[in-house]
Amino acid sequence: MDTIASLFSFITTPVSWVIVQFHSVYGKIFGPDTGWAWGLSIVSLVILIRICLIPLFVKQIKATRAMQTLQPEMKKIQERYKNDKQRQSEEMMKLYKESGTNPLSSCLPILAQSPFFFALYHVLNGIATGSTIGVINESLLASARKAHIFGAPLAAKFTDGSAKVEALGASLTDVRVVTAIMIVLMSASQFYTQRQLMTKNVDTTVKTPFMQQQKMLMYVFPVMFAVFGINFPVGVLVYWLTTNVWTMGQQMYVIRNNPTPGSKAQAAYLERLTKHVTHHGKTRRRSEKTIVKAIVAKGRDRNEFERTFINGLTKAGLVAQADGTVVKGEAQAVAQTEDGVTATGAAKRQQPKRQSKAQRQSGSTKAPGESTSASSDSSASADSSDATTSLEKSDEPQDAKPTAQQAPKGGSNGRSRAQSGQRKGGPQRPKSPSKK
């Protein structure tokens, strides 16, 4: 480990300097020799490093999304050239070049964080052995050796013997209990971070070997942390637990606000976005406009959750635009009438009033609002005239037969009506074609 630490000795001095600066601030609050002052100095170092690594984290997200998108194409290449490994590698590199992705981009935050991790380990190891390192002088070294976190010295390890622990002014039981709890928390946070990534932020419509590898790493990484954690000093465990908690929170934020398309997280996000947009009638944040713009640009390539989002906006009378904004649809434009009653801009089609059988047979074309009330004499005359008209019209159009069939000889008027298929009095029934 000394060889590895020496490789990162160029960063040991900056790391020790940052820790000392934070210690000078927290020492005035909690006391220079307390575990809170030194422990919070290490936590602040982690936060500072992770803030500086945010651009790399964003690049890691984009690289991971790109790799997930390329998984179907990569699987086709593997199946097509399964017997030619060289051609398979060439086609893979060509695919990466065309898409502008780099598989190593997803490992950038871990790789960039490694020098700080080994530099901190080297600093804490120097504190445990009583040797000055970086900007930590004799007085700071003595103060750090007195610092305890819940009874465990910063430089103590789970595997240390009782003699070494007693030299640091602590008991072996306290050291092992504290380190065991921190190792469990460190492994649990790592497991939860990987699990929420696999269960919530993975496209469920694509089944690739990449997903199986991620599931395997979900169980392998916590075991690795538990195995290596017993050899880490308490200060390094504080560092690693803090960075795991930061990663977990950062991952939760990304999953909630920028989920992977086709994942369960996207379904939950679009459901929240639908309620928000329909309530306010517009997209208010820049991130919302970016999501809506990407969904509109996909067109027919939208997944199930994106189609549900567009349909939800349509039902609410809203239309998503190509620039990510949302406007009211034309069919739902509201206008104010003269009497103060709101009405939709698109007038509804009015259905004609249904007429009675007598009106249909008599050819009456009265307007729906026309008054039908009249005196008894006028109504009687109207009924007689309608009956006469109906008799004439019902006999004329359908029988294009000889006149002998229209008026049979020797029959009365009522008989002739009965023979022609007409009813006595009242509305007449139209002739059936079968009786022609």
Describe the overall structure:
- Helices cover 63% and strands 4% of the residues.
- It is mainly α and 436 residues long.
- The model is unreliable at 331-348 and 364-422 (pLDDT under 50).
- Strands 1-2 form a two-stranded antiparallel sheet. A two-stranded antiparallel ribbon has the order 3-4.
- It contains 18 helices and six strands.
Task: Note the main attributes of this structure.
single chain, 436 residues, mainly alpha, two-stranded antiparallel ribbon, two-stranded antiparallel sheet, 18 helices, 6 strands
Short description, anyone?
With 436 residues, the protein is mostly helical. The protein has helices spanning 2-7, 12-30, 35-52, 54-80, 85-99, 108-129, 138-146, 162-167, 172-200, 209-229, 234-257, 264-280, 286-298, 304-315, 357-362, 376-395, 403-406, 413-419; strands at 148-149, 152-153, 318-320, 326-328, 334-336, 342-344. The strands form three sheets. The protein has a two-stranded antiparallel sheet.
Compile the SSE list and pairings.
Elements: H1 2-7, H2 12-30, H3 35-52, H4 54-80, H5 85-99, H6 108-129, H7 138-146, E1 148-149, E2 152-153, H8 162-167, H9 172-200, H10 209-229, H11 234-257, H12 264-280, H13 286-298, H14 304-315, E3 318-320, E4 326-328, E5 334-336, E6 342-344, H15 357-362, H16 376-395, H17 403-406, H18 413-419
Antiparallel strand pairs: 1-2, 3-4, 5-6
Helix pairs in contact: 2-3, 2-6, 3-11, 4-5, 6-11, 9-10, 9-11, 12-14
